[in-house]
Design goal:
alpha/beta
């Protein structure tokens, strides 16, 4: 078998419709666009969600729910991620700045430490919030938690 002898399976490929190539092609003249009107002209594009004048779906369905604009969103970081960071970089303490430098958080993130995994090193961790399980695991390992106000 050679590269130049490879072919697709029988009937697995088709030629595309070539429209606007003269009357003899069967798709000349109006090029399958019909006669006159905006839709037959070049440059026409209908609005997103337009359904031919029928009330579009996004307007038929009622609005519901509530969006809290004052909700604080936390970047969650688990204990196993922190342990990997400690094993590889060996920082003296974990702060939001250390997490930013190592790609675990970005500059404006509020950080919450969660309790997945386990931590074996005694270390001081500073964050905006801690889950109960994370706090217990850190203190069990001999570390301390500091909450940023």
């Amino acid at each position: 078998m050679r590269l130049e002898s490879l072919k697709p399976a029988k009937n697995s490929t088709r030629n595309r419709k070539r429209i606007g190539r003269g009357q003899g092609s069967g798709r000349g003249g109006t090029s399958t666009r019909g006669h006159k009107g905006a839709q037959s002209r070049s440059g026409y594009s209908k609005k997103m969600g337009f359904e031919g004048g029928q009330m579009p779906l996004q307007r038929r369905i009622p609005k519901f729910g509530f969006k809290n604009n004052n909700k604080t969103i936390y970047k969650s970081i688990n204990l196993d991620d922190i342990q990997k960071l400690i094993d590889s970089k060996k920082p003296k303490e974990i702060t939001p700045k250390v997490l930013q430098q190592n790609g675990l958080a970005s500059k404006k993130d509020q950080i919450k430490i969660l309790g997945r995994g386990e931590i074996t090193t005694t270390i001081k961790i500073t964050a905006h919030k801690f889950s109960e399980s994370a706090k217990k695991a850190i203190e069990k390992a001999g570390g301390s938690t500091i909450i940023i106000e």
